[in-house]
Design a protein that fits this description.
Radius of gyration: 21 Å
Helix content: 10-25%
Strand order of the largest sheet: 3-2-1-6-5-4
Number of domains: 2
Order of helices and strands: EHEHEEEEEEHEHHEE
Strand content: 15-25%
Shape: globular
Length: 302
Amino acid sequence: MTQRADVVVIGGGQAGLAAGYHLRRLGVDFTVLDAQSAPGGAWQYMWDSLHLFSPAAYSSLPGRLMPPQPGQTYPDGKRVVDYLADYEKRYELPIQRGIQVDAVQRDGQFLRVESGSGSWRARAVFSAIGSWSRPFLPAVPGRDVFTGRQLHTAQYRRPADFAGQRVIVVGGGNSGAQIAADLAHETELTWVTRREPRFLADDIDGRILFDVATARRRALDEERTDTGGVASLGEIVAVPPVREAGTQDYSRPSRCSSASPRTASSGPTAAAQRPTRSSGARASARPSLTSRHSGFAARAGT
């Protein structure tokens, strides 16, 4: 049987919940379809040590501040999951769990949302599915003959799973830096990036990034000079584990196939360079972690 709604939101993570909040306020007839069996979106599956790099007040969804976590400036993953679960309950969002959407097709003047659990007919569809459930592993030469374990950021949980092993972490973004820092003390680690990473200054967190991004948006709207925004500061937030790992050197010759390390973990790749003070950019006085730059490009987590 085909169900009807003015709007169907696909995905029950933070984007889907925020959309549901505004639809509820507007009095729109809507439903949220979520493939997961429990609240929390992708945050249910993040690695154990992950924390937000913004304080709770800067990580909130519309309408409800995230309560601070006692003893923590930056909330951990469990705190985020609890907040999202409370949020959807507080606003009584109509979320249907365990619904894997297979297709969205035109149906006259409407849209038909199809799944193995039934179909929905709607005037509008809001896609908030993210990418965590479909991790991408790049076609790096030698991957097909590599005998070790290959995994994506989405499958990583904790360093104890790799204790004593040789591990290559591929990717120069925040996920790559944080996972490399997480593994630094328990593995023989090589961190491979396409170019040298650009670290933000130690005192820059999500609060400053939010303010910088907002200022840039206002400048563009008012046709003033483009400030460059967040990209002008760097790419990698120097969260405490990354700063701590910065006192050691994990740079080793990169090996893509012949050396066969036990594990290759892929994270997102970002354009990067060694942090320096120029053009008004705020850069870290000391780089955290040392990466081995490789001629191949690995892209994942997008």
